[in-house]
Design a protein that fits this description.
49% of the residues lie in helices and 3% in strands. It is mainly α. The chain has one domain.
């Protein structure tokens, strides 16, 4: 039966696949961007003006900026996954990595959801404590000293103006936008990627624990299995039969 005909597709597995693919892509973008020493052909004949503050403009720099964006966005996707998989009841359009653990209504500090507090799922608790390394306006208590600056970097990168500078001279701080050395931004992006990697490991282990707990709770009742084979990462070998499941 083809997908178009209504075949069952394991949504959470597909979603986790997508998150893993985004992470490894962001990781490689960071590697290429941080290691590149040559100008890319796409940078040629692009009319940019020298603002005399040692700006860092290049395709390699944009790869690092893209890696930061993708990595940070994965935190919200992890919370979206957690909300759906554990049926926490949050509005999927308003769920966040810091807020998914708490009651949706009430004034801060809101209590932790009872359904989460009662779970003896240690990887899930590890994910909860890791979430405190991020800063949100509503959740200001953090364990990571640089959490707020990380959040400010993300906001300027996504919505405002983040200027990267070469490390060959001093730049003048301006009231418009935010400035940071290219090397410092690379270090921050690497730290962010490490946080995302740890979060996804915790998420995977917490799902494994949850599935084992559900199996024990269901008792001897047998459930139908759905064997899944590894995805073939060679596009030329993917056939219509693979896509339709026929």
């Amino acid at each position: 039966m083809s997908i178009a005909e209504g075949a069952y597709v394991p949504g959470v597995i597909g979603f986790f696949n997508q998150m893993k693919q985004e992470f490894v892509s962001a990781r490689f973008l960071y590697y290429e961007g941080s290691k590149s020493k040559r100008s890319h052909f796409s940078d040629r004949r692009v009319l940019l003006y020298n603002t005399l503050d040692y700006p860092a403009y290049s395709f390699a720099t944009e790869k690092m900026r893209a890696a930061f964006r993708v990595a940070y966005s994965l935190f919200d996707k992890i919370s979206y996954f957690t909300n759906h998989y554990l049926q926490l009841g949050h509005d999927p359009n308003r769920v966040s990595f810091r807020g998914v653990w708490y009651e949706a209504k009430g004034k801060p500090p809101r209590p932790i959801l009872a359904s989460l507090a009662s779970r003896q799922n240690w990887p899930l608790r590890g994910l909860f404590w890791l979430s405190k390394d991020l800063f949100e306006d509503e959740f200001t208590a953090v364990t990571e000293p640089d959490a707020q600056s990380l959040n400010e970097l993300r906001n300027h990168l996504e919505h405002k103006y983040l200027q990267l500078h070469q490390e060959i001279g001093e730049f003048v701080l301006r009231a418009f936008g935010q400035s940071v050395y290219e090397g410092d931004f690379a270090d921050t992006t690497l730290r962010l990627l490490k946080l995302v990697r740890a979060s996804m490991i915790y998420l995977s282990l917490s799902v494994c624990h949850e599935e084992q707990a559900r199996q024990k709770k269901s008792g001897p009742r047998k459930a139908p299995s759905m064997p899944l084979s590894p995805w073939d990462d060679q596009p030329e070998t993917i056939t219509n039969q693979t896509l339709t499941g026929g």
